[in-house]
Design a protein that fits this description.
The protein is of the alpha+beta class. It contains 21 helices and 76 strands. Strands 13, 15, 16, 18, 20, 21 and 23 form a seven-stranded mixed β-sheet that branches. Strands 55, 57, 58, 59, 60, 62 and 64 form a seven-stranded mixed β-sheet that branches. A hairpin with a 2-residue loop joins β6 and β7. α16 packs antiparallel against α17. The longest helix is centred in the first third of the chain and has 96 residues. The protein is flat, with a radius of gyration of 64 Å.
């Protein structure tokens, strides 16, 4: 610094000396200098002259240059135009070439797809094929049956059961390739895919052998599988589960499509920042599987470096680059100027990062739209700079302010964000346009106030609010939120900027209006639920549901598509799916189910697997631009479904035979332990794998017997049940009766039978049947032990029965008290014989016996016993451990009289290790005399109950002998007087007095041998000496003292004679006749007809007649409730009751409320055998007669409650909505109910006066339920014949069947309408009782509107006088005065009024007055008009007369 300053001072001193030296020379040589100057000026002039010449030359040269320049300019313009045309053609060629390339790529893609489809079709044709290798081929020249050779190979080498192999069917089996190249491979095409799978799954049996078996695929698929095999091996070495299905690699159950999937490249690791990095790129030979994987990984890593800059899928799509013809060219596509500028901005960032440059001069912009090219206000910026330009005619233009100097507009980079599934976090980016100054941006979770969508809730985020700082010059800043999703609630997640950011720079900052809110997964992230990612299902369930969740958001309708891939499970054999393979979710719906049908079969199968993969999701309506929401989870997009092993693939073990009987001797009993396989359709189970089981005897003292807990059961399916049900008395003992067995048997794969032996020991003791139990226990290898009925009857145990021996059942014969026995046919007493056995009583024995006439009789003689014995031979059984046993020899109970006889019963043989006692093998049986062999005396049927009139003087009775007739028999008889009154059929019957009502008689009847005639007894009656005892009265005749061993029939030893009045004779005869005949339809019709005749012929029905009639009717009704009677019979019965209901009767029918009960039962006869429920609406069964309308129904209780019945004359009845003592849960059960509407109160009338409104009685009830109180009232309405009801005395009443009278308690029945208004012609009632209902009310008597005859006489006298006055006036008057004329008019009006009175009085009751609102009242109106007119005439006359008299009086006063 200092050196530089010194140098400057030296230079300054030298310049001063030079100037001084020049001044000195100038003063000394001044003339010289002037001369010099003059010379120089002269030279200058010469040169100036030469310059003028040069100037002319230059002007000429300039002209030539101008010409040349113009020529060059023209040439340049032409070249430029040509170059532009060439460039345009080149660009057009490039564009067309790009189109061609795209079409070529499309064709290549289609070709690839067709190739893959062809390979898939080929693989499907090979689906049932298996290739077998290294199977020895027959030498050349020898014919080979390849199919038989293959079957032998399957049995011998692959250990498949011969039964399976024999059932397998092949479409074709042949060798592959040309002969002479060693043992060629065998290709087998199976008919059934299941058979192919069974063989393929048995490949492990070929391990460590030269043979192999594998599936057949097309060559293209084989090549792909070869490339995937190293990856499978590497994945398995790393501890993963890996396999190949077709040409797809699966690792840990997830599909890994593509040979070079970067996920398999070891050096792709994820760092802590969330991006991917590579730390072993150059180590190609050690860590990478092949070069193709290296290339794929490189492309993957490069793409990740770019994509890590674009955290959302939207920006990644905006960064999409379409390759052109050259590798250094690119095309940026966008839908708007804004999108293109955003993409240019991203491109600028990318180029700066990787030190790349873009040739802006060669960058072109093309706009495709209908309205033209680029508009004047559309600018495309790269690197944020463009010079301001003024177009022609413009006075101003926009000046671009660089972002670094501009105030900020702040918003979210994206309006839709995605969630990181692993961490449940979301990384959001806040950007700003203009990077001047530092900003503090506040954000808040959720939606702005009042903008939460309807039916949605806001999701939970942590933190719920905060702020971030963006330093000067930084255009974006990230922050992260943690989300907690609730799958069963329709929720949405969002973050918004509530206020403008704060800053210290002038001008402040603003929010980007369209970017103040970011929605996080608004349409949801679709994934499988945790319980659906690895579910297991049994074939027995038939289906499985997989739950698909929609997390974080559930806006709009979405449809997720899925694909089902079988791994070890086979589609259409193991499972089925629906055709569309899609599941839809409506707005707000957060879950849906995928149903997979699991097919059930009877074949044994090991665990099988299939995958359900969510492939893509679509929102409705579909957006025109791609969006990251909705999307499929990349973590939980697959469900690995396991179909559990079924039908016992490892076999069901059982023992055959289950039951076996052997003799007691030293021997070996062979038992087969079977492992059930697919031998036939009934067998279930398989023969996969190696299994073992322990075989033991039990129950004879073995140490392990206590380890088994006996279980009670109906059958003997398991060893526990048979030990519980086993008789310990018959249990064989180990070491005494058999040798203990405890061994283990092992089944190799394919083996089905193993054999064990049980050793039986012998002794000399008498023993019953003894059992040895052998059972299976401790199975291994997945096999199980058969459980009896559930396994087709196969059992895991065997019962060896050692047959009884050494006369174990003893010796048997008749007991001493059974050597002589008696039997009685009439008493039903069989010959009971007792057997007794000795020596031993262990077993159950069967003894055969035979009845004989005598011990020495022949078979023809013994055959005669068949007429007297039910069976002449049989078998008797003696249970084990029982010394005595009985059997009966039963006599035939016939009607033939028989004398006393004897026969013998002989023991013929005995079974089951027993013998007969020869000294007690015959018993003698004595049959006592039977069937009244000496005769049975009785009254004849028509003489046992006789009804006679009180006027009759005698009655004849018949006595007969039945049964035996061989002997002479005498029997006595005599009349008997009853000792007390009896109540018969509701009528009190008094005793008839002997000597007054009848003559006392006695005597004897004689029946000669071999004669069966009827003997008669004539009984004399004394009607004229009859006692004062009221009718009816009764006495009887009794038989007794039969001789010669005969008997009197106790049921027919008395004959009753009932004496009644003649008027009651018919009804009593009907009663007696009905008692003797069955109540079939014909007899019922006959009884009803006779009753109808009795009622029609009786002027008044008596009390006795009514009681007897009620008895008959009750019997008929009882029969009608048991079975359905013809409709005609029911109609006859109802008509008969209606005759008894006639209100004109003044006899015993009045007040007979018991008949109402019979009428109710008749109503129920209408619905006998009716179905329930009835049709909807339910049907009422109805009948009518002149005085009653009957209805009945069998309805559900719910239909009965609240039912409104419409009666006659607009009467109504409403059943309560709740009935007493009826549970609420029985509304669907049917009940029988009746509705009867009586128009006569005959059965309810207690006195001579009728007191019910309209004589109307309404009855309602449920069958089997007595009348009772109810909290819920019935409502009914009864109309009156006219409106004139004495309202103060109207009462609603119900009939108390216990008191037999009407009850009008105000707290039970109430009138509910207002009768004081006089407008209702009905009475409304509410009654809390279920019974009969009516209304008591008095109405105005119609007779009150009439008059006596004297009224009409006086009226006619008045009318005659007035008529005479009028006639006299007209005949006699010559010149009448005005007042006289008025008087005549007055007389005529009075006469006319009298005429109207008479007509009205006479016609009012029937023609004028109306009694109901509905009748027309015009006659009364007309009569009223006439009366008012004539009254007005009379009033007018009186007024005129008053006026005349007044005027005359005033005139007279004036004159005076």
């Amino acid at each position: 610094m200092f050196v530089l300053l010194a140098r400057k001072h030296v230079e300054f001193a030298d310049k001063q000396k030079q100037k001084a030296y020049k001044r000195h020379l100038y003063k000394r040589d001044k003339p010289y200098f002037l001369k010099k100057i003059n010379d120089r000026i002269g030279n200058v002039e010469k040169r100036l002259n030469s310059l003028e010449f040069l100037e002319k030359k230059v002007e000429k040269f300039e002209l030539e240059v101008t010409k040349i320049w113009n020529y060059l300019t023209d040439q340049n313009t032409k070249c430029s135009e040509r170059l532009t045309n060439v460039e345009d053609k080149a660009e057009s060629t490039d564009f067309n070439l790009g189109i061609v390339n795209s079409k070529v790529e499309e064709l290549q893609s289609k070709n690839k797809q067709l190739t893959e489809d062809l390979a898939y079709v080929q693989s499907q044709s090979m689906r049932n094929n298996l290739i077998f290798g290294n199977i020895e081929e027959a030498r050349q020249g020898v014919n080979e049956n390849t199919e038989d050779l293959l079957r032998e190979f399957l049995v011998d080498k692959m250990n498949i059961a011969k039964e399976f192999v024999e059932q397998m069917k092949f479409e074709r089996v042949h060798r592959m390739g040309d002969k002479g190249r060693g043992d060629r491979k065998i290709v087998a095409k199976f008919t059934l895919f299941k058979d192919r799978e069974l063989v393929r799954k048995s490949w492990k049996s070929l391990d460590k052998s030269k043979y192999f078996v594998h599936e057949q695929f097309p060559k293209s698929v084989v090549d792909k599988r070869k490339k995937l095999m190293p990856m499978v091996k590497e994945a398995r070495r790393n501890g993963h589960s890996a396999w190949i299905a077709y040409d797809i690699l699966y690792i840990d159950g997830k599909s890994q499509r593509g040979v070079a999937n970067p996920l398999f490249c070891k050096s792709v690791e994820k760092n802590n920042t969330g991006s991917f990095s590579d730390n072993r790129l150059t180590n190609r030979n050690k860590e990478w599987f092949d070069y193709e994987c290296i290339q794929a990984r490189q492309r993957y890593t490069d793409a990740l470096h770019v994509f890590n800059r674009c955290k959302t899928e939207v920006n990644r799509e905006e960064l999409f680059l379409l390759k052109g013809r050259y590798k250094n060219d690119m095309v940026i596509l966008g839908n708007s100027v804004k999108e293109i500028n955003e993409s240019l901005k991203l491109l600028n960032v990318y180029c700066k990062k990787w030190s790349l440059e873009v040739n802006v001069e060669k960058t072109k912009v093309m706009v495709f739209r209908k309205r033209g090219g680029i508009l004047h206000n559309e600018e495309f910026l790269y690197n944020g700079t463009t010079p301001p330009k003024l177009q022609v005619g413009q006075t101003e233009t926009k000046v671009y302010v660089p972002p670094i100097a501009a105030n900020s507009k702040v918003g979210f980079k994206e309006t839709v964000a995605a969630v990181d599934e692993e961490s449940s976090t979301c990384r959001l980016t806040v950007i700003r346009e203009g990077m001047y100054g530092t900003l503090e941006v506040s954000w808040q979770s959720g939606f702005p106030e009042g903008r939460v969508p309807v039916d949605f809730t806001e999701g939970t985020m942590v933190p719920d609010s905060s702020s971030i700082k963006i330093p000067h010059g930084i255009d974006e800043k990230n922050f992260t939120v943690s989300l907690t999703a609730t799958w069963d609630v329709p929720e949405l997640f969002a973050v918004h900027l509530p206020v403008a950011p704060s800053t210290t720079v002038a001008g402040g900052s603003r929010l980007l209006q369209d970017r103040t809110q970011v929605n996080i997964e608004p349409y949801g992230l679709l994934r499988f639920a945790d319980n659906s990612t690895n579910p297991s299902v049994s074939e027995m369930f038939g289906k499985i549901y997989l739950q698909v969740l929609r997390l974080y958001g559930s806006r709009g309708k979405v449809e997720a598509r899925y694909r089902v891939e079988g791994i070890s499970a086979v589609p259409e054999f193991d499972f089925n799916t629906i055709e569309n393979h899609a599941v839809a979710m409506e707005p707000g719906q957060t879950s849906a189910l995928i149903m997979i049908e699991i097919l059930q079969d009877n074949r044994p199968e090991q665990e099988e697997i299939f995958h359900v993969n969510l492939t893509d999701v679509e929102k409705f309506p579909t957006d025109t631009t791609p969006s990251i929401s909705p999307r499929i989870s990349y973590i939980h997009q697959s469900s690995v479904v396991k179909i559990e092993e079924s039908n016992d693939p490892y076999g069901v073990l059982h023992i055959e035979p289950t039951y076996i009987t052997v003799e007691e001797r030293f021997q070996q009993v062979n038992l087969t332990i079977k492992r059930t396989g697919l031998v036939n359709e009934d067998n279930t189970g398989g023969i996969f794998g190696t299994v073992s089981v322990v075989v033991r005897t039990v129950g004879g003292g073995e140490s392990w017997t206590s380890q088994i807990n006996p279980k009670e059961g109906d059958g003997n399916d398991t060893i526990r049940e048979i030990l519980y049900n086993r008789d310990k008395f018959t249990s064989a003992l180990s070491s005494e009766d058999y040798v203990v067995l405890d061994t283990s048997v092992t089944f190799q794969q394919g083996e089905t039978d193993k054999f064990v032996e049980v050793t039986i020991l012998a002794d000399d003791l008498a023993e019953p049947d003894q059992t040895v139990l052998v059972y299976l226990t401790q199975p291994t290898g997945g096999a199980r032990i058969a459980a009896g009925e559930v396994d087709g009857g196969r059992k895991g145990f065997a019962v060896i029965t050692i047959a009884r021996n050494d006369l174990s059942s003893g010796m048997i014969g008749f007991a001493s008290d059974s050597l002589q026995v008696t039997a009685n046919e009439d008493a039903g007493q069989p010959a009971t014989l007792r057997l007794v056995r000795s020596l031993a009583i262990y077993g159950q024995i069967e003894i055969t016996w035979k009845a004989k006439v005598s011990a020495e009789s022949t078979e023809p003689e013994d055959a005669l016993l068949g007429r007297q014995l039910e069976t002449t031979s049989g078998t008797a059984t003696c249970p084990p451990l029982q010394k005595h046993c009985l059997f009966n020899v039963t006599l035939i109970d016939d009607e033939e009289p028989e004398e006393e006889e004897t026969f013998v019963v002989q023991l013929v043989s005995v079974l089951n290790d027993a013998k007969l006692d020869p000294d007690a093998s015959i018993a003698t049986v004595t049959m006592e005399a039977s069937d009244y062999v000496r005769g049975l005396i009785e009254f004849t049927d028509d003489s046992r109950d006789v009804v006679v009139s009180s006027l009759k003087s005698s009655v004849r009775l018949g006595v007969r002998r039945v049964k035996g007739s061989k002997y002479r028999v005498e029997v006595s008889y005599r009349t008997r007087q009853m000792t007390r009154q009896e109540f018969i059929n509701g009528v009190t019957v008094s005793p008839a007095n002997e000597g007054q009502d009848y003559v006392q008689q006695s005597g004897e009847l004689v029946f000669e041998p071999e004669r069966q005639e009827i003997k008669f007894i004539d009984i004399n009656l004394t009607p004229f000496l009859a006692s004062q005892t009221g009718y009816p009265k009764q006495f009887y005749i009794e038989l007794g003292g039969p001789s010669n061993g005969a008997s009197v029939n106790p049921q027919a030893s008395k004959a009753f004679i009932l004496i009644t009045e003649p008027k009651d004779l018919d009804i009593w005869e009907i009663i007696k006749d009905a008692e003797d005949k069955p109540l079939n339809d014909e007899n019922i019709r006959d009884i009803i007809d006779k009753l109808d005749d009795v009622i029609n012929t009786s002027e008044q029905v008596t009390e006795d007649q009514m009681s007897l009639t009620e008895k008959i009717l009750e019997d008929i009704v009882e029969e009608g409730l048991k079975r359905k009677l013809p409709t005609q019979l029911i109609g006859q019965l109802i008509n008969l009751l209606c005759k008894l209901l006639s209100p004109d009767k003044n006899d015993a029918t009045r007040g007979r409320s018991e008949l109402a009960t019979i009428m109710e039962n008749v109503a129920y006869m209408l619905i006998t055998e009716a179905d329930c429920p009835s049709p909807d609406p339910p049907k009422l069964h109805t009948k009518q007669c002149p005085h009653a309308s009957i209805a009945a129904g069998r309805w559900p209780l719910g239909k009965i409650k609240g039912y409104q019945y419409a009666g006659q004359r607009q009467d109504e009845f409403v059943i309560p909505k709740d009935l007493p003592n009826v549970p609420d849960n029985r509304d669907t059960e049917c009940e029988d109910f009746h509705m009867i509407e009586y128009s006569s109160e005959q059965w309810f009338q207690r006195g001579p006066k009728k007191e019910l409104l309209s004589n109307k009685v309404i009855s309602f009830g449920l069958k089997g339920r007595d009348s009772q109180y109810t909290d819920f009232p019935v409502v009914y309405r009864i109309h009156s014949p006219d409106r004139r009801i004495a309202s103060s005395r109207a009462k609603c009443v119900y009939y108390d069947m216990g008191l037999n009278q009407w009850v009008d308690l105000s707290d039970i029945c109430q009138v509910t309408n207002d009768l004081d208004l006089g407008v209702d012609d009905f009475v409304d009632c509410s009654c809390k009782h279920l019974t009969h209902y009516a209304v008591k009310a008095t109405t105005s008597d119609r007779g009150l509107v009439g008059y006596s005859v004297w009224f009409f006489v006086s009226c006619f006298i008045c009318m005659t006088g007035l008529l005479a006055a009028i006639l006299a006036h007209h005949i006699c008057s010559v010149s009448a005065m005005f007042s006289a004329s008025l008087l005549m008019h007055m007389c005529f009006a009075a006469m006319a009024t009298q005429i109207c009175y008479v007509v009205a009085a006479y016609l009012s009751p029937d023609e004028i007055i109306v009694y109901t609102i509905g009748e027309d009242n015009y006659r009364c109106i007309v009569m009223g008009l006439f009366l008012h007119y004539f009254f007005l005439c009379q009033f007018s006359w009186m007024m005129t007369q008053v006026c005349i008299i007044s005027i005359s009086f005033l005139a007279r006063l004036f004159i005076e």
